[in-house]
Sequence to fold (391 residues):
Amino acid sequence: MAIEASGYDSTGGRIRLGMVGGGQGAFIGAVHRIAARIDGQFELVAGALSSEPARAKASAVELGIAAERSYGSFEEMARVEAGRPDGIEAVSIVTPNHMHAPVAHAFLEAGIHVICDKPMTTTVAEAQGLVDLVEKSGKVFVLTHNYTGYPMMRQARAMIAQGELGDIRVVQAEYPQDWLTERAELSGSKQAEWRTDPKRSGAGGAIGDIGTHAYNLAAFVTGLETDALLAQLTTFVPGRLLDDDVQILLRYKGGARGMLWASQVAVGNENGLKLRIYGTKCGLEWTQADPNYLWFTRFGQPKQLLTRAGAGALPEAARVSRVPSGHPEGYLEGFATIYAEAARAIRAARTGASPDAGTIYPTVRDGLAGMRFIEAAIASSKAGNVWTKVG
Fold:
């Protein structure tokens, strides 16, 4: 099913987009730009692409941004763009974590919608401040937990909401990688350098970088709210300043139990995000490496393979599927779905309306929940792996 079937309103042309961060050598900025282009809803017209002026200017040239709209700082960009009749309507924040909050504040205060990479901030206090500002401003704030955009995750969420699994008993989420098995931060890897630096990443390492993805996805799909957790955060690589392996037990409100493992030193794993959910009647299993497949099992029955856009696809999954069944969709399209949902919300905001009820994206409150999760896990680990309330 093409995305056009989702009912886009193209009135007013493409949404004018700016970007902070994401210049030459940055991985995630390029991902966001591709995602914003896939459905043709955004046009990148301005940027403060690097804290290094020369790199920012060169990056703007490569991306076709006019010289007068390539800015030396995000503060200047927010001020000038807010005053232009053709100024940006939304900004993508793709900086290291420590810059998310100040950049978001500047653009929200300038009346500009925000699309922000995760984790939302580096502290709970910063996250709460953003919640207050977003709710006061009335602006759209989208957090790019991209895995929530995968069609089969929308399928699983809808099946659980409809009661297919019965009462949820067990949730298992894991996200193993191996790219930090050695001290890549000393080898010139820009991505490793800031992710292992508490000044730029925040107090969490693997837990903030990928643990929040696993935690958010489990919450998104199940609808469960965490009551307490018991965490063990480990730094295996000598000399590293932040955790590189996370093992957590979860107690959900209502009685369900969960386990979460996130590691960046699990040799042989590239991007092994997996989710398993078991209820009183049925179970679901999904892996990011095969994102178009969802295993569904009724108790006492053979396993059933559900496929993206295939037989049994629910409307919630079909509306975010772009190509026919049997053709792979994955990481970039998941990001694009978040941008597509952002476009719906921003277009609705142009007239003061609310987006249609099917529009789903991670919000500023999901960002706050993620920071509360990180804070509770760090506290639990430091206290000797004890049960700790979340939030």
Summary: The chain is about 35% helix and 20% strand. The mean pLDDT is 95.
